[in-house]
Amino acid sequence: MRIRFLLSVLFFLPFAVVSTSCTSTNSDDTGTDTDTDTDTDTDTDTDTDTDTDTDTDTDTDTDTDTDTDTDTDTDTDTDTDTDTDTDTDTDTDRDLLCASSGDFDFQLSGTGLEDLEGHKVWASAVQPGDDPHTATVTVLLESSIQSGAFSLDCPESLVEQMYYPSAVVVVDADDSGTCTSDDLMVVWQYYGWLESVVESFDSAAVLGTVGDTITWGDRGFCEYYVPDALLD
User: Fold this and answer.
1) Which residues share a beta bridge with 121?
2) Closest C-alpha to 200, from 161, 151, 128
3) Is the per-residue pLDDT at 39 higher than 60?
4) Closest Cα partner for 197 from 167, 169, 221?
């Protein structure tokens, strides 16, 4: 049995060898099929995307709006309301010498003086202590003639006495500011006074010129009644 098997093997072995070396050249089919399609795919599209759009948006929007709003409104308030106060009350009254330490009032007034409008006027009282020759001014008042009139008074400035007291009105006719010989005057001479002195007149006709009038102690009229020293 074993020999038969070996023979059988040996018998078929050449055929087996031949069978394995057969390349099947098939002379009719020359298509060796040398397909060289290596398909290396040389597609060099590396897709480097050279789009360099770096977005250089130069719109810096620096806002050059130069509206500095300097507000040139020069409204300086030109309100020309000067309110000059047209009140014509000149209030020129001055109490040059008026001591309210007595018993009697002193009041002098005048009207009808339109021709002397605006001139200064003085009212004076001389009350001697014991001798009219050495007497000095007791009351001296100053004003101006307004609307043809004036009124001056000094309350409780006189005392009872019997040494020839006197009172005067002087109008500064030459507008010198002091009593001069060119001024106008009227005089009230008393033996004494026992009550308030209240005198008035209603016309410029009662006024005389001072001129060279001399009074007590041979003193000039202006020196005695309206001395310059009291007008400062």
Assistant:
1) 143, 171
2) 151
3) no
4) 167
Main-chain phi, psi angles of 210, to 5 degrees? -60, -50
Residue with tokens 């209603």: 202
Whole-angstrom distance, CA of residue 184 vs CA of residue 181: 8
How far apart CA 165 and CA 157 sit, in angstroms, is: 13
Tokens 């018993």 appear where?
103
Under 8 Å between Cβ of 112 and 143: no
Judge whether 154 and 104 are in contact, CB under 8 Å.
no
Ramachandran angles phi, psi of 11, nearest 5°: -65, -40
- What is the SS3 assignment for 8? helix
CA separation (Å) from 212 to 62, 66, 184, 217, 221? 98, 88, 12, 14, 8
Q: DSSP secondary structure string, 137-164?
A: EEEEEEEE-BTTBEEEEEEEEE--B-S-
**Alpha carbons 124 and 96: distance in angstroms, whole number:** 10
With bands split at pLDDT 50, 70 and 90, how would you rate the model's confidence at 129?
confident
193-221 pLDDT tens trace: 999 999 999 999 999 999 999 999 999 99
Structure tokens at 117: 């409008």
For residue 19, is pLDDT > 50?
Answer: no
> What's 95's DSSP letter?
E
Section 80-87 average pLDDT: 50
* φ, ψ at 77 (rounded to 5°): 55, 75
